[in-house]
Design brief:
Elements lengths: L2 H5 L1 E2 L6 E2 L4 H11 L3 E5 L5 E6 H10 L25 E2 L8 H4 L4 E5 L5 E6 H17 L1
Parallel strand pairs: 2-3, 5-6
Antiparallel strand pairs: 1-7, 3-4, 6-7
Length: 139
Amino acid sequence: MNIAAFYLTPKEEVIWIDEGSKIRQALEKMEYHRYTAMPLVDKAGKYVGTLTEGDLLWSLKRNPDLKFKDLYKIRLRDIPKHQRNEAISINSQIEELIPLAVNQNFIPVVDDQQNFIGIIKRSTIIDYLYQRLTVLQCG
């Protein structure tokens, strides 16, 4: 089954952040939405990685002289990322996502030109598997 029609949360409904944004913007967005990670997208619309709160904390730890008021100075593209959520093609099958969902809360989805078009949430994959299990047990 192709993931696009049934499982994709489109970019318009996803909380993501531009890699040119600053640390302070990321912190505010993460706090407001209560997220621990967000997809990073470049100006061209390409998925370039995942920003985690751990990335932000480690960056602050490496810069002990940095003051909170100065967080607007550091761009997200300049922060080392410790987690790489592998993106999948819009043409992928749901079964291909299961191994990725083990270690990723969400799976970024890109089109044929590598443009970020949305995510598949781990909870969606678990729900899919639960429905399949229920059908197998009843059938």
